[in-house]
Amino acid sequence: MAIQGNLDPAVLYTSPQTIRSAVSTVLKSYGSGTGHVFNLGHGVAQHVDPENITVLVDAVHELSISYH
After folding, report:
1. Among candidate residues 8, 29, 11, the one with its CA nearest the CA of residue 20
2. Rounded to an integer, what distance in angstroms lies between the CA atom of residue 29 and that of residue 50?
3. Torsion over CA of 7, 65, 54 and 2, rounded to 10 degrees?
4. Are 41 and 8 in contact, with CB atoms under 8 Å apart?
5. Predicted pLDDT of residue 63
6. Of residues 29, 12, 15, the one with CA closest to residue 63
7. pTM for the whole thing?
8. Which residue range is the domain that position 15 belongs to?
9. Relative orientation angle of helices 16-30 and 50-64, to the nearest 10 degrees
10. Which one of 6, 15, 43, 49 is separated from 26 by 20 to 30 angstroms, measured CA to CA?
11. HEC-encoded secondary structure of the chain
C-alpha cells in the first residue's frame, strides 16, 4: 500500500531553509519504510520562484534517503 503525503504549496513562497524544514517534517510524520509518495497538497502556483521548486526536489531526494 502507498500513502501520498502532502506539503502545503504555500511553503514554496518561503525561504530555502523553511522549505527544507517542511520537507523534513512531512518525511518524519510518515516514518521509515517504503510506500510514501511525497507530493504537494495542490499544484505549484504560477508565481513560485522556480529555484524554490529545485530546493524542494533536492531536499526530498536528500532527506528521504534516511527513511528507506
Report:
1. 11
2. 26
3. -40
4. yes
5. 96
6. 29
7. 0.90
8. 3-67
9. 40
10. 49
11. CCEEEEECHHHHHCCHHHHHHHHHHHHHHHCCCCCEEEEECCCCCCCCCHHHHHHHHHHHHHHHHHHC
pLDDT tens series, the chain, 68 aa: 788 878 999 999 999 999 999 999 999 998 888 888 899 988 899 999 999 999 999 999 999 999 88
Closest CA to 64 of 19, 37, 36, 27: 27
Q: How many residues does the chain have?
A: 68
- Tell me the three cell numbers of residue 34: 517504503
User: How many whole angstroms separate alpha carbon 3 and alpha carbon 12?
Assistant: 22
C-alpha cell at 12: 514554496
Number of domain units in the chain:
1
